[in-house]
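User: I'll paste a sequence; please echo it back and then give the predicted structure.

Assistant: Echoing your sequence first, then the prediction.
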Amino acid sequence: MKRKNLDNKTWKIAALLTLFAVSTAFSPGPRKIYFQNIKTKKIDSTTVDFYGNTKINQLPTGTFRVSFISKLELIKFTNDKKANIPVYTFRKGETYHFDNHLFVLANNVDISSHESPGIKVNYTKKTVKGERHPVAVMRSPSMETRLTSPEISMEKSSGMSDFSTDDIPISSSPDKSKSVRAGIVTAGRWSDLENWSKFHKTHDEPSIKSIQKEWGFDLLHKRVSIKLTTHEGGALPLQKLQLRNKKDSVLWTSLTDNSGSAELWIHPFSNLQIDKKEKFGVYHLTNERWVFLGNVSGDVNSIEEYRLNLSQPIANEVDVCFVVDATGSMGDEIQYLQKELIDFSLNANKELPCSKIRLSSVFYRDLGDEYVSKKADFTDRIEDIMGFISEQSAGGGGDFPEAVDAGLNSAIHELNWSKSAIAKIIFLVLDAPPHIENASKIRELTAIASQKGIKIIPITASGINTSTEFLMKYIASITGGEYLYITDHSGVGNSHLAPTGVKENVDLLKNQWMNVLLKYAKYGDCEKLVDSQQLLPIMDPRRNIFGNQQVIIETYPNPASNFIEVESNSDILGIKWYDMNHRLVVEVKNDQPSKKKRFEFPVQIPGLYLLEVNTYNGTFINKTLLTNGYKS
């Protein structure tokens, strides 16, 4: 009898689980869809959101084969003409619904009833003139449902920091602004330099050794770690070091970081074996002269420390550059990453109040795309870099490798890095490797980054393979950095590669890269420096001046908090706030027109906005950054 009751319970539970699994399996998104142009054979991708919606921006109007599985399926089609791959006609700029491997135009559907995602909805189907391929009816919820849908949630894991749900408005449509926000993407963090024995052990595996050979890196038994301090033990950053062999040939050049540490390497791009008894000279640049500090052996898994008769330099500049893969395959994650980048920009000055932080960004694609790389140089105007980031979108690409070398080259050679910055960091966000024929260029750029004291922190997204993972780890180690990898915990994007030889340490991406920034940028005692007036925090908000030859408008402050003051030589009739997609957020009229007016800030969501000032002599627009109510 007990057995029968137990079986009944078991079957009930199994039935519920089956029902849940079925409803989940056929719920719309988010997921990546791959397209192959019938004429050009070029492959691109886009992402459907959590409700099965996608807007076709990066594709021209035309006919495409569609894969719901992988890019590889489309590539194989050229060799197997009998492959059953669906074909659709898409129009650029149109929004489509996707469900159960079928598409339909958003304006192709009349909604007569709607329920929650994953439950069948009744629709009335219309005919779209000009469609050459059949379309099917979707189960996607209506716009009203999307606007009131619950926020994306994730159970907090043990050891994780609190999650933030603050919205930052750079979304392309109103319904997405609720789901695409900072504080969702999760990532792991790993330092091979701090786990060097494990790094060696991982490379006992022949397949991993072959990856070294593939990319032309060989770091085993070739590392020399140096630390410079004052006689009192204080760190000495910004010191140039060289490693030389017995013939006095320079093997490696680098700068010490905020902890006074530097990584020097013995032939890291050669499979040349190093004699453990061989000695190498460490040299320090002092008063434009190279001074010999001492001899070291290769890869003794210890830090050689030298105490010098120098004072600690006063330094507070921090340069951070975001280098981002903007090819089509990044479509599943780029909107979330844009939010995270802007969140980082807003929080950096709070975390380092005594630092002068400058930000820059490079977005890259591949040869033959709309562009190979585009950049925004270093600036301490947060609103400028936020504007640049929010304007970018994913598109192009086609084959698996992308122009990673072009992105890094632009960042390392074309940006105005400060020579006196205590930290110089590149966050390299990507989901594909460089072209293998450009491996030598990647090695060259890595060495130059080390010479300039630039740490490269790769952040890998969905789509990378083990070969790309280890290439990124090599780049991070050589430049004295760390390796970050986006994980599946948040449910954002496609499946992510589990790291090799790594003890997982997962947290929100916003916490991970902020911790990386603090690790490499924190220097000196902020309070003492402020008290002694040696260094003052950068806290002064700016006045923005814009207009034309006849009308001059001045707004204060920018960034804004609870209010904004507008002053003009022409009477002010009112102001309007727009998001970065020119969607009106709110309008405030000035009942008594005057040349100076204080407006209480009506928008409660932090981010970058367009401020439109309407005067008797014309209307003028300028960017304004809101940090009011922002939570870190």
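Residues 316-528 form a domain with the Rossmann fold fold (CATH 3.40.50.410). Residues 328 and 558 are 34 Å apart (CA to CA).
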